[in-house]
Design brief:
globular; 2 domains; two-stranded parallel sheet; Rossmann fold; alpha/beta; UDP-galactose 4-epimerase, domain 1
């Protein structure tokens, strides 16, 4: 039984991570400002990570799972608070992002390649780089995970939820061009399994790309989302010179991660079709929690 600190804990990845490890019997503390319902089976530390002072002084953690660090300051402020009362922790795992790789690098991106600005991800990517650099500087033996697009239950981001909504309304789906652009996904439970393996095995590598080994075309992904909702997809191809983010969930940006190292952690990932069925079941019961965007409204006004 470990004592684990999870940053956040109320939205998608951090919530799933907190409940996953609580369900494993670990003592899980979540650090957040208590603006949303708390994950089941966890202990709340109510605070802003940028104004911690000695809030963490009464705690000792085996593991810090930093799911919500988006800048170097996020990392430094948390580490300052942990060190303020000379706290010790055995492991620190940072959930970073594939956005740290420049789009100009050859694919698939490998951990050995350099990080740098990516024109599609902008400051999100460069801030993630800063969070990694701050952590490595101060905790050299910390672990960093770089996932592609995460999906699964509790995902309030309007990605698969957008397609599910279209399927539920029996709408034709408006594809960017022929839908040939490829996307790489990773189930949030597989992310948790990778974290768990790191805590159990302490591998010699400390930076891991994680994700499904196989990418999938947009058309195939939409087809599987519709099938998860019990529908068959029909398509309208959009060939106009329009920013596809006006009517679709992803940038016009195709890349792939080399996830060879992931084999040190887990030997298989959840099949996408199975994971999307699970995602749809969650979506069906939590539609009001999804952060909708105006894709359907744009389609009806500008493309229909």
């Amino acid at each position: 039984m470990r004592k684990i600190l999870v940053t956040g804990g109320t939205i998608f990845v951090s919530r799933y991570v907190a409940e996953y490890f609580a369900g494993k019997g670990d003592v899980v503390y979540v650090l957040n400002r208590n603006h949303h319902p708390q994950p089941q089976g966890t202990i709340l530390i109510e605070a802003d990570r940028h104004q911690l002072g000695d809030v963490l002084g009464q705690y000792v953690f085996d593991t810090v799972l930093d799911v919500t660090a988006y800048t170097g300051e996020d990392v430094s402020d948390l580490l300052d608070a942990l060190e303020y009362m000379k706290q010790n922790f055995k492991d620190y795992v940072l959930i970073s992002s594939s956005a740290v790789y420049p789009e100009t690098l050859p694919h698939p991106f490998a951990e050995s390649q350099h990080t740098g600005p990516n024109k599609y991800w902008g400051t999100y990517g460069t801030n993630k780089i800063c969070s990694e650099e701050e952590l490595i500087k101060r905790v050299p033996d910390a672990y960093i995970l770089r996932p592609p697009y995460l999906y699964g239950p509790m995902n309030i981001v309007y990605r698969e939820a957008f397609v599910f909504e279209c399927a539920d309304q029996n709408r034709k789906f408006y594809l960017p061009k022929k839908g040939a652009m490829k996307l790489q996904f990773f189930h949030v439970r597989d992310l948790c399994r990778c974290i768990e393996a790191i805590l159990d095995k302490h591998p010699s590598n400390h930076i891991f790309n994680v994700g499904n080994a196989e990418s999938i075309t947009v058309r195939e992904w939409v087809e599987q989302c519709y099938r998860a909702a019990g529908r068959t997809a029909e398509y309208v191809e959009v060939h106009q010179d329009i920013n596809q983010r006006e009517y679709f969930s992803f940038y016009e940006y195709e890349y792939q991660l080399d996830v060879t190292r992931q084999g040190e952690l887990i030997d298989a990932t959840i099949p996408l079709e199975e994971g999307l069925k699970e995602s749809y079941r969650w979506y069906r019961d939590h539609k009001d929690e999804v952060a909708r965007k105006g894709y359907i409204e744009y389609i009806d006004k500008m493309l229909f």
